[in-house]
Amino acid sequence: METGAPYFHTPIMLAEILEIAALKKDSFVIDCTCGEGGHSEKFAPLIPDGRLLCIDRDPSILEIAHARLSGFTNVGFMHTRFDRIGEIVRENEFPAPDFILADLGISMFHMKTPGRGISYTDTQSLDMRLDTSEKINALTVINTFKETEIADIIYKYGEEFEARKIAREIVRSRPFYNAADLADAVRKVKRHNKGRIHPATQTFQALRVYINRELDQLEAFLPEAVSVLKPGGRIVVMSFHSLEDRTVKLFFRETAKNELGTLVMKKPLVPSPREMRENPSARSTKLRAFEKRI
Question: By CB atoms within 10 Å of each CB, which of 11, 15, 179, 207 scores lowest?
Fold first, then answer.
C-alpha cells in the first residue's frame, strides 16, 4: 500500500533483505529500527496472516511510519530502544519472531530535518539526540566537556586520527550553538580532506554514537535478539561504519562457533553499484545475517 508521501529515506538493499527473510504468510517480524517505515512497508503485505512489530527510539519518526502503514491491520508500533527486544517479547508474550531487522544507519529524516543538529548545515541546533527525552546532547558535550574528554570521544567513536587537534580547536572556538559552526571548526583543522566525504564526518559520527550510546545498545541488542529469535529464524543487521560492523561480525562469528546458529553468508553483502549510484547514502552499507539453530 503506497501512500505517495514525500519520504526522506530510501530503504536500502530491499531485494537482498526479502530474499534472506524468506517470509511466510504467517511470519512474525520485528523491524527494530523502523524509521519512516520503508522496509516495513514491503514486509506487511507479505505476511497477511502474520504480525509486524515496528520499533523506533524516535517518537517523531515513528509517527511518520504509523501514518505510512495505517492501511495495514497486521502492524503494531512501539516507541522504545531496540536493545530492549528481549524484554519486549517476553513481557508482551509475543511469539518468537521469524525475522528481525536492525538497520543501524542514521535516517535521512534526521539528516534533513532542521533542528536535530545532525546535518553539517544545520544552523538551528547542536542536539544530535535521536530520542529528545534523553538528558545529554551534543551541545553539552562540546561546550562543557574537557578538551581531553572531547578528543577521546572523537577518537574512540569516530576513529579520527586528528582527534586531539580537532578537540583543541573546538575548545578554542567555543561556545557553539549549532552544527554548522561546529562543522566549520572541524574543517579548519582538516583542510587537506578531499573527495565526497565531509571533513567533519568522523567527528559528527563520534558525537552521535556517544550521545545516543549506539554501540552500547548494539552490544546489548545482539544477544537479546538471538535469544528471542525462533529456531530457524533469521536476523539481518545493516551497519554503516567499521565500529558497528566489527561488533556485529564478531558477535555472529562467536555465536556460530558456540553452535547456536550459522552465518547466512560468510562475508557481508554490500549494495549493488546501481543502488549506490541511485542512492549514495547506501555506499557504506554492510549487511550481515545470522540463522538460529533449529
Answer: 15
Task: Tell me which residue of 163, 190, 39 sits closest to 105, measured CA to CA.
Answer: 39
Angle formed by the axes of helices 179-189 and 201-212, to 10°? 130
What is the pTM for the complete model shown? 0.92
Three-state secondary-structure class, residue 76: strand
Distance CA 11, CA 35 (A): 10
Which domain CATH number covers 242?
3.40.50.150
Q: Do both 243 and 97 map to the same domain?
A: yes
Neighbour-count burial for 87-106, b at 16+ CB within 10 Å, e otherwise: ebbeeeebeebbbbbbbbbb
Task: Identify whether the C-beta of residue 50 lies closer than 8 Å to the C-beta of residue 25.
Answer: yes
Q: How far apart are CA 157 and CA 151, in angstroms?
A: 10
Res. 195: pLDDT tops 70? no
As a whole number of angstroms, the distance between CA 27 and CA 29 comes to: 6
